[in-house]
């Protein structure tokens, strides 16, 4: 989990509600949306140790009433944090602080540089879904496959600052086994590492092209962008030994102040 600037005080909060409230009102001068303000409050409280693993948060309505924000805004913020792994929501029981997450190690395509520090930002990947699909642009790039193509959709949080979306396509004749893997094996990991270690196909080359597009409603919603937004769409073809294509990826990147390292061969 990425470390945020500390807001810690000498005395730790007596309860999760107090901790969240304390950070929430300290962030008020920043002019964030209420959704972002609540999300950042919880992240700060976790990173500063005022919220600990398995701490139970107040009920959604009580939390919203305490902070004078709507139930919908509260649910949106907690849902985002659950998707990113900061929180765990247990139906009928409550919402709890989750285990600290590890960022994706040796990312190839999501190496964004912090303009202040010059360092690459941590990346957290969340599995949205996986399925087998038929022909599409990926078929021309990967070649015909009678069994179809495995599609893996993931949302990638870049240090909690913004989100990217990935659609990865793989020949089903080679990688159908990835559909049976536990979902958590496909989170916070470079999928190329899975292709190599689990299936024996290392990615030895990756080439891509990029253009600006208006994302469809689904992609825009996942990236938390408005309907008039533009994003950078990058198509990346991965190859293994003997120049055999093994992966085709659609990568959607929002505008940001962070520079994207486009050297697809190296790993940070």
UniProtKB/TrEMBL annotation:
Residues 32-100 form the HTH gntR-type domain. The keyword Membrane does not apply. GO terms for biological process: negative regulation of DNA-templated transcription. CDD domains: WHTH_GntR (cd07377). This is HTH gntR-type domain-containing protein. It comes from the Bacteria. It comes from Candidimonas nitroreducens. Keywords: DNA-binding, Transcription, Transcription regulation. One of its GO terms (molecular function) is DNA-binding transcription factor activity. It holds the Pfam family UTRA. The lineage of its organism: Bacteria, Pseudomonadati, Pseudomonadota, Betaproteobacteria, Burkholderiales. Coiled coil: none annotated.
């Amino acid at each position: 989990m990425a470390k945020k600037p500390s807001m810690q005080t000498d005395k730790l909060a007596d309860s999760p509600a107090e901790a969240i409230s304390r950070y929430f009102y300290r962030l008020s001068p920043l002019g964030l949306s209420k959704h972002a303000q609540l999300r950042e409050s919880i992240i700060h409280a976790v990173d500063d140790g005022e919220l600990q693993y398995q701490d139970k948060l107040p009920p959604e309505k009580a939390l919203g009433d305490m902070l004078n924000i709507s139930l919908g805004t509260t649910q949106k913020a907690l849902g985002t944090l659950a998707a990113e792994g900061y929180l765990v929501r247990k139906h009928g029981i409550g919402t709890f602080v989750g285990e600290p997450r590890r960022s994706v190690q040796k990312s190839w395509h999501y190496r964004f540089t912090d303009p202040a520090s010059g360092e690459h930002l941590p990346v957290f990947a969340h599995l949205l879904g996986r399925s087998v699909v038929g022909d599409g642009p990926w078929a021309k790039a990967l070649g015909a496959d009678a069994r179809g193509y495995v599609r893996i959709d993931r949302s990638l949080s870049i240090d909690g600052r913004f989100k990217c979306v990935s659609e990865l396509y793989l020949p089903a004749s080679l990688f159908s086994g990835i559909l049976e893997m536990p979902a958590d094996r496909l989170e916070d990991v470079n999928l190329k590492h899975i292709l190599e270690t689990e299936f024996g196909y290392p990615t030895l080359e990756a080439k891509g092209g990029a253009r600006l597009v208006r994302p469809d409603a689904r992609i825009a919603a996942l990236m938390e962008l408005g309907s008039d937004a533009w994003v950078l769409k990058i198509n990346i073809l991965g190859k293994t030994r003997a120049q055999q294509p093994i992966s085709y990826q659609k990568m959607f990147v929002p505008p940001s102040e962070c520079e994207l390292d486009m050297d697809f061969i190296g790993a940070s």
